[in-house]
Amino acid sequence: MAESHSESTSDSLTTTSSTPDQSATIPISTPRSHHVPEIPIEIISEEEMAILDAAFAATRSFLPSAIRSAAAASPSRIIAGEISNTARSIAMFSKRKLSACSSEDIEDSLLHRFRKNQALGVTDLTGTEWCEKQMENVLCLGRRKVSKAMKLGQARHLELEEEVVKRVRVKVESNEDKWALKLLSSIAGVNQFLFEGRTRELLLVGFVGGQWIVGVIDEVRKASAEDSSDTGPLLIDTKTRGRDTLPAEPQRRNGR
């Protein structure tokens, strides 16, 4: 009996045995080489490792005694949990930018989107301090429609202004004329405050922190000897209400 060996193109060897009566092919398998997937590696900086070490140290100090006893009884379970937490922390810190504010955050800020080429109003600051989300909705969605109560409030403010200031109609043709009229009205208001001790709707313009700020004082008057011993001016903010109830304490603080 003669035997001939042949190697196939696959990962198995075949042996062919030939006799006068029969011929058979028997496959002989060999181990197939397995493809090992590459594990992604993320490089962690020394600063991030220091943050991780500090976080782990703070966590260990707050562990209850029950967890510490369980860690002593079965350290392998605690080690496995720490490894998984470490992996998640490394992924989180490696993807996080260490800079406090990126260029994208600056471009997406409300100041850059809505007040890039104009001054900030005092109402912008006070409205943001009162409720940031409400101010965001006002900028993104627009202010609410003027209601009947708001029209009555505007009419009341106009009446109070006409008690102190004489309004004169002036025709303007450009933005320069508009701002010139505002500045002249502000100068007239300052002179009225100095000589008469009272004025209303006084425009103020300032440059604070690299940003132009524009605001209007509702009413300012000099303090008399009976009102207060302080010689500084008194700022008065008139509040109008849509219902017959007293305003809240924050509104009554500087109102009358």
From TrEMBL:
Family matches, as InterPro entries: EXOV (IPR019190)
Biased composition (Low complexity): 9-19
MF terms in GO: single-stranded DNA 5'-3' DNA exonuclease activity
Any GO BP: interstrand cross-link repair
Ranges of biased composition (kind: Basic and acidic residues): 238-256
Region (Disordered): 1-33, 227-256
Family: Belongs to the EXO5 family.
Skewed-composition ranges (Polar residues): 20-31
Lineage, highest ranks first: Eukaryota, Viridiplantae, Streptophyta, Embryophyta, Tracheophyta
Protein name per its UniProtKB record: Uncharacterized protein
One GO cellular component term noted in the UniProt record for this chain: nucleus
Pfam hit, one: Exo5
Ranges in coiled-coil conformation: none
